[in-house]
Specification:
254 residues, alpha+beta, OB fold (Dihydrolipoamide Acetyltransferase, E2P), 2 domains, 5-stranded mixed barrel, 5-stranded mixed β-barrel
Amino acid sequence: MNDEFYIGWEDKAPTSYARATRRMVVFALLVAVAGGLGLAASQRLIGNAYFEWGNVKEFSGVLRTEPYPHLVLQSEGTNPAPVAAPLVAPFKFGVKHEAICGFAGQQVSLRATRIHRDGQLMLELEPDSVRPVEPPPLESFARLTNVVSLGRRTFRGEIVDSKCWMGVMNPGVLTPHRACAVRCISGGIPPMLLVRRERMPPLNVLLVSPDDKPVNDAVLDLVAEPVEITGEVVRHGELLTLRADPATYRRLPK
């Protein structure tokens, strides 16, 4: 028979009470840790997306203004490859066409902050930082000026604002992000169709009209919604776009 009796105002609890309390605390901690790990494991991965805020660098390449402003440059590493990096302005705005149209097709240098996800690059352009430079031979950029049709395709996905999805707001998708995405796209950020693929990186294509024009205002009602879009996939050098009339976009049930 256990004659131990616990009195609350005593400095120390009896041995049996102390032992039982320790066991309960350890058990509660183990349950909390296991629950946290299980919850984390059940979440969908949001990918490797980064906004290098405050780290402004110098970039050089060929500036293109259609269908959306982008800089054609070479990737870093031992085997550099051509990259087409869409350009956006600070905050929730796209780069105004009139601010850069005088440099279209030219070799330029500019200052920008890197935004990148899963090997894709976007640049947040510093205002008034674009400067023409003495052009090197452009043979390596020749194919990047070509527009190549990859055929007509049908995709199912979600319309996102490309800047937030690329890394400024991580994960930057689905209904909780809708209000932010609408503001970004209405401010000129290129709209993007995010197509998720099983066991593969997502496919990201910028949305344009059949005549290669921006469609920002026409897609606002469908942002962060599941949609089906049929159109022509076009590669502008390294920039992938989907030409389709927004009136033909089909909203899918959630």
